[in-house]
User: Fold D-lactate dehydrogenase (cytochrome) from Cerrena zonata.
Amino acid sequence: MDAIVHFKPTDLDITVEAGLGWEALNDYLEDYRLMFPVDPGPGATVGGCVTNNSSGTNATRYGAAFANVVSLTVVLADGTVVRTKKRPRKTSAGYNLNGLFTGSEGTLGIITEVTVKLHVKPKVERVAVVPFKTIKDAANSVNEFLISGISLNAIELLDDKMMKCVNDSGETTRKWTQAPTLFLKIGGSNDEVVKSTINQTKEISAQHGSLDFQFASNEDETVELWSARKVALWSTINQGKLKNDDIQLWTTDTAVPISQLPRYLVEVKKTIDDAGLENTLVAHIGDGNAHSFILYHPEEHAKAERIVHNIVKKAIELEGTCTGEHGIGYGKIDLLEEELGLIPIDVMRKLKLALDPHRILNPDKVFRMDPNKKLE
Amino acid sequence: MDAIVHFKPTDLDITVEAGLGWEALNDYLEDYRLMFPVDPGPGATVGGCVTNNSSGTNATRYGAAFANVVSLTVVLADGTVVRTKKRPRKTSAGYNLNGLFTGSEGTLGIITEVTVKLHVKPKVERVAVVPFKTIKDAANSVNEFLISGISLNAIELLDDKMMKCVNDSGETTRKWTQAPTLFLKIGGSNDEVVKSTINQTKEISAQHGSLDFQFASNEDETVELWSARKVALWSTINQGKLKNDDIQLWTTDTAVPISQLPRYLVEVKKTIDDAGLENTLVAHIGDGNAHSFILYHPEEHAKAERIVHNIVKKAIELEGTCTGEHGIGYGKIDLLEEELGLIPIDVMRKLKLALDPHRILNPDKVFRMDPNKKLE
Assistant:
């Protein structure tokens, strides 16, 4: 289930079996200077990316899985095999079944083959690392990048505690300023374009009080500068484990409209800090999507749960979502109800029953099949 | 039904009532240097753009309506009002109802309010006009722009006959080379970026035998150069009417995978020419989407229909679609069956019946409610 089924580089798409890993796919595409832009955690399959509507650091430029599906082969509950589309890059031919199956978490059918859009890797891509005095300064700077129409390929934020964690981990070759820091990918089709964009980015950052502006002048430095972003999650876990082997990690996944980010991020951190739990923050800040990594001892589970609920509630109040990219599963069924209300979920339930009347595909995931029954 | 409901420029989204025109919306956004990128024919409403999954010249860069919907308010057949999402730019919270309603042509519900993504207008945008000896040269040049990762904001092709029509119409201030011609929009956040991209584009065009490369050095010239693209459709109609007031126009809307375009476009033109019908061609060539404008007398209707069917059949053979952006309606129901087969249409029918069991919303549009009954 991990074969490449059809590939013609000049079509900028590829058809693969659903079990192929997104990293293996990108390794394969390397020679062609092409990429599948969805980059969730390591180990995910391309089919998993689609069924979960995954994204990652590239989504701010290339969109989530949803925006990159051309066609799907799906086995329905009754065994019918559906091929949703042929391979046009653009079509208005009938209902967009791609849009329905993408993100349905295996509840409407089992995806066995996917055709996805590919993107041309920027001929030149450099990383800039920009620490700020406060998260608010960093977030305001991002708002201005976006409003200025500067085309950045990734816009990530790590908070001061995360930067300390990365330093303590010793997993990168350099020591970083322990301040809220933006990691930017700046790409283009030639050196001139990239250089000019770097200068504009630097200027805006300075206007918002950046403490420094390091950028990679070659490929090796690019990899080195991005390394801190890459080790972020694991360095938090390792740091926790050093202190206590029982330590648990809770990852949040809220997203809010981008103008709300500065105040939202400040409030999220305060909420967790006030509860006395260690935490770090990584945000796909260009999409308004933030992950707090919260460390807690098993006996603090109820407290952690309460805090996370408050963080999600705040996101929903600001017209955001309980999950930017991780999905609902069983864990966020109640939060989904809080976010959307019961009416859209009733619509989802009708669609589910139309395609899976015997409820055999991931029943009670995303929403309860019986709206009156609470899960155990 | 054409009010602006909510607008916060820094969120890069806007909520409007469905009856607002896409042009009025863009006029409103002008002051903020923002744009709603979907640009179908004049007069369409934003709600219509969504329900039809429209696109236009900007889709190659910003995607079709589908990629630009944040949230919808939809009235279902039973009167229920659904708000599909809140306003996060990215979410994996439950089924993507936006993806289902977008492009469903009013068969699943009536869209009354939409929140759409806005894009920042490029600070600098210039138009280049590039005639080639053959359509194949032009199409090959486009393939190389795409593969080179050059970021163009629009990539349009007009064939030699269309260029002649534009000249004959007298509706633009200059006379154009009567050859297959690319119209390119090249944008960026500053002059340097745009200039550098123009140079790269010019170089690739020359490698593919471009006959000329005119580009606008200021705003006025930009508007002037784009004018020929703008009058294309109407100039064909007017040209036809001059000869015979009864003349009819048939517009095709096929799309094929982009590597297939050079041979496909050549074949399409040959098919129509061989039948002795006047025709011009405009293609959203960056998306593989082509419109032939075919002129015919009322008594040639059957012939025109047969030719169009052959053009669509060829697109489907090449894994393309019978409609890139115009939708199915009643007219393309049989073509949709040819394109996808009966299985995906059965799935659509199940979804339709789940949401509209009494079949009151646009019944028999997109597909027949009764699969065994042919329409009159």
Residues 328 and 341 of chain A are 15 Å apart (CA to CA). Chain A touches chain B through 101 residues (CB under 8 Å).
